[in-house]
Amino acid sequence: MTLRIEPAREQEVPLVFSFIRKLAEYERRSHEVTATEEGLREALFGTRPIIEVLIAYSGEEPVGFALFFPIFSTFRGRPGLFLEDLFVDPAHRGKGIGTALLAALAGVARARGCIRLEWWVLKWNQPALAFYRRLGASEVDEWGVYRLEGEALDRLG
After folding, report:
1. Nearest-angstrom CA–CA distance, 57 and 116
2. Of 16, 17, 19, 45, which sits with the fewest C-beta atoms within 10 Å of its C-beta?
3. Do residues 101 and 65 make contact, with C-beta atoms less than 8 angstroms apart?
4. CA angle centred on 84, ends 78 and 90, rounded to 5°
5. Residues 51-104 pLDDT 10s
């Protein structure tokens, strides 16, 4: 297997969107996908891009992706990266592709002077939890995740 990882190009927006739909299906959350290719294109390649994507290819076949964006630690005064999505097609799992995507992203973080790479994992996703632990990642359990959205966000805003 010849594996290569490259930043997404604008013509690959439909591919990235298909990976997002596959991830949502895997996470049993397809009903939550309201994103569009056009919105994704704007977020990736618009006037002010706010996300980035790495795509993994096995030969010429796209087999996975990582979507990420910058974060910042005020206490440390340094940047970090937040991994929003990591997905490898089920037929290609167990071949080191997820590890290679994370290694590539860690390389991006280091090249940019980042102090950390963070992400969230669904508590039921035991294969992902085990994978991340094998890589040396640790759970940050002293923090809770809160979300303000929909009507509550509208009311407050």
Report:
1. 26
2. 45
3. yes
4. 140
5. 999 999 999 999 999 999 999 999 999 999 999 999 999 999 999 999 999 999
Domain count, the chain: 1
Give CA–CA dist 18/20, Å, rounded.
5
Give residues with Cβ within 8 angstroms of 145, minimum separation 6: 120
Confidence of residue 12 (pLDDT cuts 50, 70, 90): very high
- Residue of 26, 57, 132, 146 marked active site: 132
Whether 132 is a known active-site residue: answer: yes
**What is the residue range of 7's domain?**
3-156
Q: Output the pTM of the full model.
A: 0.92
Q: How far apart, in Å, do the first and last CA atoms of the chain sit?
A: 50
What are the C-alpha distances in Å from 42 to residues 13, 30, 48?
10, 22, 8
Please give the DSSP secondary-structure letter assigned to residue 13: H
For 27-45, the DSSP string reads: TT-GGG----HHHHHHHHH
> Domain holding 17: CATH number?
3.40.630.30
Count of residues making up the chain: 157
